């Protein structure tokens, strides 16, 4: 059974810092991995999709890496801004039906 | 840009009542999913649906739950007799392909069971 862990659970940084969010998963048999952003009480906004054959994917200030064999993914946020404050979720895509298995998330606060 | 929509945004019901949560997936998508998130907990997979039938369901998805695609656009989740522990945010998602493609999520329906 796929288990997904995200570290740290919470993070508070001053504006402008570069930061790394970590995601680990127990079963390397994944098709892809999606990173999402969730604002309090809101839905899931897809940030990046990284395919199992890829090592990295970039979108603006965001960069996701994937090491499938070791069961790890990281989300790098460059030059953080207060508007980046949210919970970040990683979710590998698994199984015959492509379901997503979510981590608990990392709650980020960027202070002005 | 096409998006997944869900209605209602918030549903309040009494324990034991039936509720139907509605979703309109993106029009050319073929695979559909329901997930739920109890307050403060992880997002959990409930069920996947393809070609008008359930392709996988989780342990949570017991006989009280059912899904249906009654026409070419809607995808519904029915809870026959709601329990207090069904209170959660329910998300619908869809994708063009089952494997390797991005899943697009709706904004969610917040279900409150009293």
Explain the overall architecture.
The model of chain A has no long low-confidence stretch (mean pLDDT 95). Chain A is built from no helices and eleven strands. Chain A has 112 residues and is an all-beta fold. Helix content of chain A is 0%, strand content 57%. Chain B has strands spanning 5-7, 10-13, 19-24, 31-37, 43-50, 53-57, 65-68, 75-79, 88-95, 104-105, 109-113. In chain B, the strands form two sheets. In chain B, strands 2, 4, 5, 6, 9, 10 and 11 form a seven-stranded mixed β-sheet that branches. The termini of chain B are far apart. The A-B interface holds A 31-32, 34, 36, 41-46, 49, 51-52, 89, 91, 93, 95-105 and B 31, 33, 35, 41-45, 48, 50, 55-56, 91, 93, 95, 97-108, 110.
Spans of at least 5 consecutive residues with low confidence of chain A: none
What is the terminal separation of chain B in angstroms? Answer: 37 Å
Please report the total strand number of chain B as a whole number: 11
Per DSSP, the total helix count of chain A is 0
Order of helices and strands of chain A: EEEEEEEEEEE
- Rg value of chain A: 13 Å
Radius of gyration of chain B: 13 Å
Report the count of strand segments of chain A: 11
SSE order of chain B, one letter for each helix or strand: EEEEEEEEEEE
- The best one-word shape of chain A is globular
Amount of beta strand of chain A: over 45%
Extract low-pLDDT stretches of chain B: none
Report the sheet with the most strands of chain A, covering strand number, pairing sense and barrel closure.
Answer: 6 strands, mixed
Instruction: State the helical fraction of chain A.
Output: under 10%
Oligomer, anyone? Answer: heterodimer
- How does the helix and strand content of chain A classify structurally? mainly beta
Biggest interface between chains: A-B, 27 and 28 residues
């Amino acid at each position: 059974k796929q288990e997904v862990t995200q570290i740290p659970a919470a993070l508070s940084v001053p504006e402008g810092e570069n930061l790394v969010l970590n995601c680990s998963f127990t079963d390397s048999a994944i098709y892809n991995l999606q990173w999402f952003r969730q604002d309090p009480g809101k839905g899931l906004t897809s940030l990046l999709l990284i395919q199992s054959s890829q090592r990295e994917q970039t979108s603006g200030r965001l960069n996701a890496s994937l090491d499938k064999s070791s069961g790890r993914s990281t989300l790098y946020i460059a030059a953080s801004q207060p508007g980046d404050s949210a919970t970040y979720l990683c979710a590998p895509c698994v199984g015959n039906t492509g379901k997503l298995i979510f981590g608990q998330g990392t709650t980020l606060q960027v202070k002005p | 840009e096409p998006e997944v929509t869900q209605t209602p945004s918030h549903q309040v019901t009494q324990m034991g009542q039936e509720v139907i949560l509605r979703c309109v997936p993106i029009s050319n998508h073929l695979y559909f999913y329901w997930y739920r998130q109890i307050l403060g907990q992880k997002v959990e997979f409930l069920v996947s649906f393809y070609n008008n039938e359930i392709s996988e369901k989780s342990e949570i998805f017991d006989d009280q739950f059912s899904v249906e695609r009654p026409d070419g656009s809607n995808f519904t989740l029915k809870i026959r007799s709601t329990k207090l522990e069904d209170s959660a945010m329910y998300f619908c998602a869809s994708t063009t392909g089952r494997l390797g493609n991005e899943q697009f999520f709706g904004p969610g329906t917040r279900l409150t069971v009293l």
